[in-house]
Amino acid sequence: MRASIVLLPGDGIGPEIVEQARRVLEAVAQRWGHDFGMPEHLVGGASMDATGVPLTDEAFDACRHADAVLLGAVGGPKWDDPCAGHRPEQGLFRLRFGLELYANLRPVRAFPGLEDCSPLKRERADGVDVLIVRELTGGLYFGQPCLRETTPDGLRAVDTLSYTEPEIRRVVRLAFLHASHRRKLVTSVDKANALETSRLWRQVASEVAKDFPDVRLEHQLVDSCAMRLVTHPRSFDVIVTENMFGDILSDEAAVIGGSLGLLPSASLGDSRLGLYEPIHGSAPDIAGQGIANPLGTILSAALLLRHSLGLEKEALAVERAVERAVADGVRTQDLDPSRAVPTQAVGDAVLERLHLT
Ligand code: IPM
Ligand code: MG
Fold first, then answer.
1. Are strands 274-278 and 264-268 parallel, antiparallel or unpaired?
2. Which residues are catalytic?
3. One domain for residues 72 and 139
4. Is the shortest distance between the CB of 247 and ligand 1 below 6 Å?
5. Rounded to an integer, what distance in angstroms lies between the CA atom of residue 20 and that of residue 347?
6. Which of 12, 159, 166, 280 is the most exposed place for a label (fewest CB within 10 A)?
7. Degrees (nearest 5) of the Cα angle 116, 119, 124?
8. Res 112 pLDDT > 90
């Protein structure tokens, strides 16, 4: 098949990890006879330095017209001035919101071979397989008003938490669809004992559940969900929640598998176009050293093959190759400093195993 995949390496370790995912996509194209165009564009701080804005209209249009977008990471101390007019993250938000990618899928699994990297006891982390579905274009990240003002008591800042019924319904429905192909349990996470948006969330989730009689719905408050993720992580199948809760819970869940560096994500809407990125950040402290873990990005490329290009066989082959590399002891420093290999060597290890499948 012919497909256009826009690469947005971004900031910090972004370029190093996207390069390894690009090599994997190229190998997939070669092995299965596909033709992937992979133009690169700037996003985040890199784009601000070159153009003054975190995402140019030209880069946004390139993404809009592509089949899929693969992003590394955005942000870093260089652009952290709280009073600056632009922030690198705005590039990411423009993509998520502008492309209407309202559902962010974050699959968390315990990797065989990485049991000792998890901060949880082996008997708790073993066999964990949770899909977090995070709402991505609403809530505190996008609510208006969002402002800062001077008052007689000093500065005041406002963010707004707002959700409409359709915004909740479409993401919860997507979570149910996924659960119906998995273990048929949806945990809808909210803070209904404190927030009106959460009470609406709970109501809409219960309505959606009626269309999926074979999937069980449970509601859980976000604070107790945070606790259950470390005490009984295996008790979850699909978690669906609003933007900010999903951001926090997915970082917490990510370490169950051993490292944040392993976790991929897919941001999807109603079309096939998706944005794929590892859930970790730009890690400026290790940028440019060639030691970052590229597996979260490579696994994001696998999700891209599956969800935007419909190439299930190829997606599985990439996932198997990553699993084999990990099982064979290939480690970056986040997983095991004592036997860490460079980013490029991890890419090589995945490519070798891809050719073996
Ligand atoms: C994520 C990140 C972003 C978010 C940051 C970089 C703005 O933490 O994708 O989880 O909060 O959505
Ligand atoms: Mg986050």
1. antiparallel
2. 141, 191, 223, 247, 251
3. no
4. yes
5. 5
6. 166
7. 80
8. no
